[in-house]
Structures are given as C-alpha cells and as structure tokens.
Design a protein that fits this description.
4 helices, five-stranded mixed sheet, rod-shaped
Amino acid sequence: MNPKRERIYGSAVRLLVAVGLLASAGAVHAGDYCCLCKGQAAGKTINASNRTVAIGQCTLECGNFTSVASGKCAEPAPAATPAPTPAAAPTPAAAPTPAAPTTPASAAPYPPKDFVSVAPTAKVLADDGRIRVIDFQPAAGTKLPMHAHPTMVVYLLQGGATRFTLEDGRTIESTAQSGDVFINPPVTHSQEHIASSHAILIEIADASDFEAPAPATDLVSIAPDHCKLLKENDRLRVYEYTAKKGDWVAMHSHSAHVVYLIKAGKTQFMLQDGTTPKPAELKDGAALINPPVTHAQVHLEDVHAIIVELKQ
C-alpha cells in the first residue's frame, strides 16, 4: 500500500472506531447516504449504520472526501434525444456547363507569321534554306501585322521611319538613314511605316551551322582600300566592297557569305588550283549566297557590293 493510501486508510479506521463509540452511545441512524467524490458530477449511494460511518466509507471510496448527503443519490437525468432534423429538400441538379472549345496541344496562342507572308511588297532574292535575302520597299503608311524574324541583317538603301510594336505592347520608333546597317536578334513584332524606305533584309535561320572558312588571308586585311567595315558581332561581319575596272585582289578566303550587288560588274576569279571560272553575268540588285571559298580576283568592270560573312 502506498503512503497516501495508508494515511487515508488510517483516518478511516479512526472514524470507524469513533463510530463504534457513538453507536454505543445510541447515535445510530442506519440508512442510505449519497457519497459524492471530488470532481465527479454523479454520486454513489452507500448503506451505513449512521452518517459518521458513511463519511468513513465515502473517504475510503473516494480517497479525497467531498460530501455525504442522507438518502440515495439522484438518478442522472436521461440524455435528451435531439429531435430529428428534417431532411433537406433535394437540390435540383445544375444544368451542365457547355465545355469551352479546346485548342489542340500543338497550336500556339498565335503562331508568329513569316515576314514574307504578311509583306506583299517583299521580294525574295535568294534562299538556300538557312539564309534568305529579301528586297523590301514599303510605301509610307504600310502596316504589317505581327510576324517573326530570325537573326537578321538590315541594310538601308533608302532611309525611312518605322514604328514597331512588340509582343508585350511596347512601341519603338526607328529613324534610319541611307547606308545604315543593323544586326538584329530574333524578334516578333508588327510595324507601321511612317515614311517610305528601301531595305535589304538578310535573315539567318536560328541554330544554322555553316562550314568553316578555308585557311587563307582575310579580304578586309589585305584589301583595306576596297573594304569598309560597317557592322560586326561575334557571329556576323558586314562590310561594303567597291572596286574599279582593272583592280586586282590577291588570294584570300571567305567564310559562308552573302553578296548583295548594288552595282553588278563582271569579275574574273582564280581558284587555289589555278582554275578560272567563266565570269557570271549579273544585274544590279542581285544577291548570291556562297559557301566558304579561297580565290583571287580581277575586276573587268566596276563593282559595288554589300558582303555579309558568317563567322560560325
């Protein structure tokens, strides 16, 4: 027996002794008593010879006496049964919402259109699947809807003013002079020509690979009197080339390159193996897309050209 229980038991014994003394003196009131332990809501009915004995029994029962009342403990009131809740009226089924039309997974929100398809005055001069050369002469007031370009070189034969609207709604106004050159990254935009202009566009398809140039002397470095560098970045070089009838240029190399002839003129080329191809008959405004080559040349007529070389 633990000490606490032992103390309670001792107190109860002393109470019972006292009860015996009282009983001998005639203080006996046998009957039922309600023992209510501390912290309990309902009591326990016990039968004892008198109240004092009932207190002792209740102390033994509870361990921590609270109260003893004559008579039986009241029966706990039966728990009230909640009235049944009437069933809710059934909710009528909502009419089905018609499914929104779906866009095929392969379709973009609006596929950017090709420039040539939206520009009726654009004329393709040359196209090898990787490079496309376009002659574009818009009149003042010309408007083109949203379209896309890959990396592009723009050479202005005639300057003009253009308002561009980007995909995010921003507008950019550009004024260019004749002879200006731009190297533009891929872009999607619409445009409105505020003034007429004339441009040569050289589009380079994204992720295109080009053959490495043959190892030889660079044209710009050996013919500075003929070449004027206009624009250059890590991928492209644009320069203007002029020559007079009778001019001779020593052996040199080009990477893959585009030649736009502002003024065409017959040129005799000599290849590394000594062969001399027949000079081509070309017209002003012609464009050529050439692979890497090494050659020397003599000009049989005056020539004026824009050359775009691809470094990679």
